[in-house]
Amino acid sequence: MNRMHEKIVFFERAFLFSVSLFVLLLVQTSCSGESSSTAKQWKVYAIKYGETARFNRSTLVLGAQKGETSPMAWCAWLLRGADRQILIDTGFADRKLAKKWRIAGFRTVPEALKTIGLSAEDITDVVITHMHWDHVGNVGPYKQATVWIQRREFEWARTIVSKERPTRWGIRLKDLAVLGQVERYGRLKLVGRDAQVAQGVFFRDGGAHTKAIQWVEVHTNGPSGTVALASDNAYLWENISRPVSTGSTTDPNLDIEALGRIRSEVSRPELAIPGHDPETFKRFPVVASGIVEIR
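Predicted structure:
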């Protein structure tokens, strides 16, 4: 009888210990947010939607000799997570404009997304780094997405163009009109400095390419570590590695400061990704024509 009682006491204590341990682990998990096993992991892709063979280097690199040229890629970026697909910049859809800029192999970003099994309706978020036409020129197809843009950039752009002057400094009135429609549907998110778009995805202040150009910092929670998508804070790898401002900035010093922040955040130097360099599509693994995975 005593032995039976001892066994019952032993099993009761073992059960209570197991319950206590489970509660402790549950509390630790809830306090720290998502556990490491369930933390969101992001895959980062660069998308090329066309390429210009000879682009004026004095625009791409401050101080470059006039008459020199470099090839230039036209790009957007994609972050793929478990439950969100975040497109960074939208490119544009005007094929006459593509011809004017001598863009070979032009396609729209939705056409590029189809090659990796995504439609525009699959995109949950669109992040606009700045208001130039080649970055915000095709928001319309993403009808399910929340569209994120820096408030200062958006309000500045509205002061630049008008019905009398519908295009100025790379800003187009018709792109603002599309964003106005998005706003009426409640899908426009105007944010301040250093906004968080999703877990591990941050909108960071850039240089002086436009009033409030941004770049995107991505903590992948995977082997890649932290990736920085510079957009037009840097056109080429050269801008980042030297570092040297682009030739299209209004304040080179602000650009250099932004490049310093970009370089300081990445896990490896090659994970600071410029906005228009064809070399990007040679440095990383190809997943489809004109699409590489940044890792």
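Summary: Residues 251 and 287 are 37 Å apart (CA to CA).
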